[in-house]
Amino acid sequence: HVQLVESGGGSVQAGESLRLTCTASEKNTAAYCLGWFRQAPGKEREGLASVDTDGTTSYADSVKDRFTVSRDAKNTLYLQMNNMKSEDTGIYYCAADSLPCGPIRLQTDEDFNFWGQGTQVTVS
Question: What's the average model confidence in pLDDT over 65-71?
């Protein structure tokens, strides 16, 4: 069972940057698709970005060119968020699954088996 823990959330002003980190409890997440999701107030959770085992990334149109997803050799997952906007406010979740990543715009909760507890990001 993979445990994921997000960190790095907080409050920023529009136009500023923030980096989220997600650490995994197991080394075998090297073989997992890793992704970031966001749940904005009053909205359903949506996929933002994913990175596959070969480094292939996928982004939602709403964050493309502003957010960068990456993973390191220790399988820590990152989300670098630049030029943040008020609509980026929400709870951010990292997720993992043993199957290869698909396009994030088509991914739903059911496509990922493991989830973190979420971290709040507020942009004002």
Answer: 97
